Amino acid sequence: MNRPKVFVVTSGKGGVGKTTFTANLGCTLAKMGERVCLIDADIGLKNLDVVLGLENRIIYTSFDVVNGTVSAKEALVKHKQLKNLYLLAASQVATKEMMSPEDMKRIVQELYDDFDFILIDSPAGIERGFRNSVAPAEAAFIVTTPELPAISDADRVIGLLENYGFSEDKMYIVLNKFKPHMAKRGEMLDKSDVEKALAMRIIGVIPDSEEVIVATNKGIPVVLEDGVVIGRSFENIVKRIKGEEVPIEEDLKGVSKGFLSSLLSVFKKR
Amino acid sequence: MWIIDIFRKKKHKNTKSPKEEAAERLETMLTRRREIVKMIPVEEFEANSEEIKYAVIETISRKFNIPPEKVKVDYHEQNGYIVIVTNVNFK
């Protein structure tokens, strides 16, 4: 069976890290030599270009493609460092209602043969923007954090995706902003609690990291920075979607700092 | 006496960890949710709307052991489907 090529990144709840996940997964795939296209479907509240540091290079958006001003390929912006990573930006002045699921399908169809992976960054919510993003997708990443509102919304989204015809093996749960030390102390839900609640396997755990905030503010996805622990989680997710068996515990290796390494990192910062 | 009361209150302190409490709440929130999500094609609903509404009321009233008049059923059209929204008054 062929592996899916077009993925929607969704969550239901806002603020769980969909856009950051899309940017970093896209960069990881591109670093591994894949031809990747990222589509920002959050029309009106677009951010993917900002996370990628491409906001000043946007000339055309998906809205121009829908209007027939340019083709989808002409509207693409190439990443500064990764030459096989492209972005189709969203318009800030248009609204989600100005695009239909059929428009999105046409855009993806036009780009389909030129890329190995197409990732669609869905807006929060389950209205038109969500339906536009889901329409052309063959598989879905459902990003959640280990908090009740996020998990509850993820469950709702899974139900909706099932109604749209997504089978269980085409839905990948990503546990983002995970704090291992809190889970260890019994102050936060852990991976197995989330899996049990959603009755679905988790494809990857991404530890909470201050480096993400610093990198996002610089316009450089964190996986492109040197010596970043979080990069391993993204590499493992890529391996898993390609069918490789990588234990989920690998995602958190090197995250929990011991007393000595915490002390050393304080001196390193100085 | 109030000094003794302070110590008494401490004995009743909740011993559940935040994780256990969250897991419990999550289970309550998500139980049965997905089996409720059903979509009925418009044509089917138009032909049997009153019977379907009555069946929904009857099912919920039986499931939660409450009188049928405490269940309100409303519906709206979305993408060619009828979405049934039910409100239950438990008071």
Automatic annotation (TrEMBL), chain A:
Query: What species is this protein from?
Result: Fervidobacterium pennivorans
Q: Which domain of life is it from?
A: Bacteria
Question: What family is reported?
Answer: Belongs to the ParA family. MinD subfamily.
Q: Which GO terms describe its molecular function?
A: ATP binding; ATP hydrolysis activity
Q: Name one GO biological process term.
A: negative regulation of cell division
Task: Specify whether Signal is a keyword of the entry.
Answer: no
Keywords (alphabetical) are: ATP-binding, Cell cycle, Cell division, Nucleotide-binding, Septation
Which PANTHER family does the record cross-reference, listed alphabetically?
SEPTUM SITE-DETERMINING PROTEIN MIND HOMOLOG, CHLOROPLASTIC, SEPTUM SITE-DETERMINING PROTEIN MIND HOMOLOG, CHLOROPLASTIC-RELATED
Q: What is this protein called?
A: Septum site-determining protein MinD
Spell out the InterPro entries in the cross-references.
Answer: CobQ/CobB/MinD/ParA_Nub-bd_dom, MinD, MinD_FleN, P-loop_NTPase, ParA/MinD_ATPase
Where, by residue number, does ATP bind? K13, G14, G15, V16, G17, K18, T19, T20
**Role played:** ATPase required for the correct placement of the division site. Cell division inhibitors MinC and MinD act in concert to form an inhibitor capable of blocking formation of the polar Z ring septums. Rapidly oscillates between the poles of the cell to destabilize FtsZ filaments that have formed before they mature into polar Z rings.
CobQ/CobB/MinD/ParA nucleotide binding domain residues are 8-222
GO cellular component term, pick one:
cytoplasmic side of plasma membrane
ATP-binding: present as a keyword of the record?
yes
Concerning Gene3D superfamilies, the annotation shows:
P-loop containing nucleotide triphosphate hydrolases
Matches recorded under Pfam families: CbiA (PF01656)
UniProtKB/TrEMBL annotation, chain B:
Biological process terms from the Gene Ontology for this record are: cell division; regulation of division septum assembly
InterPro entries noted in UniProt = MinE_sf
Identify this protein by name.
Trigger factor
Source species taxonomy: Bacteria, Thermotogati, Thermotogota, Thermotogae, Thermotogales
